[in-house]
Design brief:
Blueprint (H helix, E strand, L loop, with lengths): L1 H51 L4 H14 L6 H13 L7 H23 L7 H13 L5 H36 L3 H29 L22 H15 L63 H18 L4 E8 L3 E8 L5 H5 L2 H8 L5 E3 L8 E6 L8 H5 L2 H4 L6 E7 L4 E5 L6 E4 L6 H15 L5 E6 L23 H24 L5 H10 L8 E6 L2 H22 L5 E7 L9 H6 L2 E4 L5 H8 L12 E5 L7 E5 L4 H14 L6 H22 L13 H11 L1 E2 L1 H8 L3 H13 L12 E2 L4 H13 L1
Parallel strand pairs: 7-10, 7-11, 8-9, 9-10
Antiparallel strand pairs: 1-2, 2-4, 3-4, 5-6, 5-13, 11-12, 12-13, 14-15
Length: 783
């Protein structure tokens, strides 16, 4: 019995001891959970600060590492950790802390993968290249970082774009429910609650309306109803009226594939419908004001060539990128592809070399890369401006062209304010390249036969015809080859017929110099600095007339330099130095960019260059001061270096056929009246004759140095003295002479002091009276 009692007592003491141990264990577990909550919360704050605030040393390294791993989701991870710490601190049943943290990490991974799948396309890169790009973009707070690529790339690769998006959304939903502890039933209940409330509200409203139905309560007051002066509108009615007015003012644009109208060939916005209200006119126009007196040619005159995209382009880029990396690795150069830009004819692969690699080692492998890629040629741009990468430009297997109509119909061209805006083509990334000749202010073009030089100049002329009226821009075309610009004779933009004689071309450039100087005299008299200011002043007053910009295009400079090198070079240099403010701009093209054609002075004064395919690297350095133009593909492939750019940009020039050029010219001839400027023709002939005389004097023949005498000279003097003014056209009409002979008579009368010098648009002054002329005749008779 005592023993039994002893055993019972022992059991009781053991039970009591066990109970005390359990209570102590629960307190310890609670303390550990609170400590874990504090640590997780502190870690979340520290992680958020590191993600948001950049720094140096270890802090900066961790900052870049966090962003590179998670991208934009690096800012979400700290808040998830804060959420977990709060749940732990509130002692809610969430299960194991480690499992909850693992679920947060998986949720962040899913979110980063979703960002990568929905916002970025990495199909053109290899897996490791995509991971590297993900880290770089993540450090820039773009994309989902390395974590997003690790899962997003395989999903896109195996399940395509649609399948990967569906899968990643389902995974996000699953891990979101795991983290928050939400079940599917709870979600359905939460979604059903607002539906039930809305249904109940609708039923109550219907019951209330039925109860009030049929009851009319009108308070007559004193027996009459006072009507307000203006209709009283409730707030709801005013809001509805405003919404209706805004809807009527909204402009519905036409579909892109619809043919543009003839009158709005260069405009971007389509005219509003008749139901549109007048306040729409208060909006500022997107395109500059146009000359309504000029019939702009319609876009329908140009062919609409839509080039389909190559379906195998993605696979071609992926294969070529891998082959480039492998080939360079075979030569001991480790690189990785960071970006790919596909243009109409070439694709540029941007490779980032490893540390310690000299750029010269890569540029020296151009021929080896072309051999491994089995292509016509590879151009290497090292380094790419503003990028820590080397660009390797590889021709596309299936190139796509660029049509002029596509560029003229673009928003960039239509909204450009300058009347000398020209369409060039598309760059290496497929973006439209539009340039302003007035800002260059002069352009030098070089390219061999078949490179697309004539097409390029024709595209420039067509751009001006679509952009400017004859009142805005007049052109002087010089074509020594007599085969390129002859089609433009008769258009209203020409000052004189296309100049084909090299001697007259020198005279035309001499006239341009004289016109430039005359314009500067007018600027000085009216205290203005340039043509734009002068035209603004002329529009405000009635005593001045606006002057157009003048575009001078020379098709072949080499022929002019062979015929009259000194006169042509001097005129080009003077125009290039001074003509910009006068609104005169040069576009000079040549097949042979050698130093005897493009002299040092011409190069120094024409900073904007455009090189198509040239014969050698020497010619490329002559036109661009760098190599590369000799490796172009031809057919409009060009290197364009406008003023202000240190390295040339590669552009695929637009194509315009002879048929399109003839259609536009025919339209302008039929719709516009053209009239050449006789005074300009007269001055060009005079300048050409003077240039011929100077050349003859330099030859040193005695016959050419004899005094000039013409049997028509007395009659010419009689005509100008009676008329009170002198001009070549006057002598032609009165004496039925040709331009050359009449010009020589004018020069001889100026030499003898009978008439004054050329004064631009003003007629020459007659310096003697009729009485003095009769006395001169009498003296001659006495002799």
């Amino acid at each position: 019995m005592p023993a039994k009692k002893h055993r019972t007592k022992s059991k009781a003491s053991t039970k009591k001891k066990s109970s005390g141990t359990g209570e102590g264990g629960a307190t310890a577990v609670r303390a550990r959970r609170q400590a874990a909550a504090v640590l997780i919360f502190a870690a979340a704050i520290l992680l958020l600060c590191m993600a948001v605030i950049p720094g140096g040393n270890l802090w900066g390294f961790i900052h870049g590492l966090i962003l590179g791993l998670f991208g934009v989701c690096a800012f979400i991870l700290p808040f998830l950790m804060m959420y977990i710490s709060v749940i732990i601190a509130l002692e809610k049943p969430i299960g194991s802390i480690s499992s909850k943290l693992w679920q947060c990490v998986m949720l962040i991974t899913m979110l980063a993968s979703a960002v990568q799948i929905f916002l970025f396309d990495t199909n053109d890169l290899s897996y490791f290249a995509a991971v590297g790009k993900g880290f770089i973009e993540g450090k820039k707070v773009h994309g989902g970082g390395v974590v997003g690529v690790l899962l997003g790339y395989p999903l896109e690769y195996f399940f395509t774009d649609i399948g990967s998006k569906i899968i990643i959304l389902l995974l996000i939903a699953v891990f979101l429910m795991l983290v928050t502890g939400t079940t599917v039933i709870a979600l359905f209940k939460a979604a059903a609650t607002p539906v039930k409330k809305a249904k109940q509200s609708i039923e109550n409203a219907m019951i209330a309306n039925e109860a009030k139905k049929g009851e009319i309560d009108i308070d007559l007051g004193d027996g009459y109803i006072e009507m307000p002066d203006h209709p009283v509108k409730s707030e709801k009615f005013e809001a509805l009226e405003r919404a209706t007015r805004n809807l009527n003012e909204f402009e519905i644009s036409e579909p892109v594939h619809k043919e543009p109208s003839v009158k709005a060939a260069t405009a971007v916005a389509i005219k509003p419908s008749k139901t549109a209200t007048e306040p729409k006119q208060k909006a500022e126009p997107t395109a500059p004001l146009r000359d309504e007196s000029y019939h702009y040619p319609p876009l329908t005159l140009l062919d609409d060539r839509r080039f389909a995209n190559d379906s195998s382009a993605a696979q071609e880029q992926r294969t070529t990128a891998e082959l480039l990396v492998k080939t360079l690795k075979d030569f001991g150069i480790n690189t990785r592809v960071v970006d790919i830009s596909r243009g109409p004819t070439v694709t540029r692969y941007e490779l980032e070399p490893s540390a310690g690699v000299k750029i010269s080692r890569i540029t020296g492998l151009a021929d080896d890369l072309a051999l491994r890629l089995a292509t016509t040629g590879v151009r290497i741009e090292a380094p790419i401006p503003n990028k820590a990468a080397v660009g390797i430009e590889v021709p596309n297997r299936v190139p796509s062209g660029v049509c002029l109509r596509e560029l003229i119909d673009s928003k960039e061209f239509s909204t450009a304010k300058s009347r000398l805006t020209v369409a060039l083509g598309k760059d290496i990334s497929g973006s439209t390249v539009i340039t302003d000749l007035a800002k260059m202010p002069h352009l030098l073009i070089a390219g061999t036969t078949g490179s697309g030089k004539s097409v390029c100049t024709n595209a420039m002329i067509q751009s001006v015809l679509y952009k400017a009226s004859p009142n805005d821009v007049r052109m002087l075309l010089i074509d020594p080859k007599q085969v390129e610009f002859g089609v433009y004779n008769g258009i209203p933009h020409l000052l004189v017929p296309v100049v084909t004689d090299p001697r007259k071309a020198a005279g035309a450039l001499g006239w341009a110099v004289t016109e430039m100087l005359n314009r500067y005299k007018l600027f000085a008299e009216n205290n203005v600095r340039d043509l734009t200011s002068y035209n603004e002043l002329a529009r405000k007053g009635d005593d001045l007339q606006t002057m157009p910009q003048i575009l001078i295009i020379i098709d072949e400079l080499a022929d002019l330099m062979m015929a009259a090198a000194n006169e042509v070079e001097d005129a080009i240099i003077r125009l290039a130095q001074m003509a910009r403010a006068a609104g005169m701009h040069l576009v000079i093209a040549t097949q042979r960019p050698s130093v005897d054609v493009i002299t040092g002075l011409i190069k120094a004064n024409i900073p904007s260059r455009l090189a198509l395919t040239v014969a050698s690297a020497v010619d490329s350095r002559t036109i661009l001061d760098t190599g590369g133009a000799e490796k172009l593909l031809g057919r409009g492939d060009m290197l364009f270096m406008p003023v202000g750019i240190s390295k040339p940009m590669r552009v695929q020039g637009c194509f315009v056929s002879n048929k399109e050029v003839e259609s536009v010219v025919r339209y302008l001839k039929e719709s516009e009246e053209h009239e050449y400027d006789d005074k300009v023709i007269e001055e060009i002939d005079r300048q050409a004759a003077a240039a011929g005389k100077s050349s003859s004097k330099s030859g040193g023949t005695d016959e050419d140095n004899d005094d000039y005498s013409d049997e028509m000279l007395p009659q010419a003097i009689e005509v100008v003295v009676e008329g009170g003014s002198a001009s070549t056209s006057l002598l032609q009409r009165r004496l039925r002479l040709g331009y050359a002979r009449a010009g020589r008579l004018i020069d001889e009368m100026e030499k003898r002091g009978i008439i004054g010098p050329y004064e631009g648009s003003k007629p020459r002054q007659v310096l003697i009276t009729r009485q003095q002329w009769l006395e001169m005749n009498m003296n001659n008779d006495d002799d």
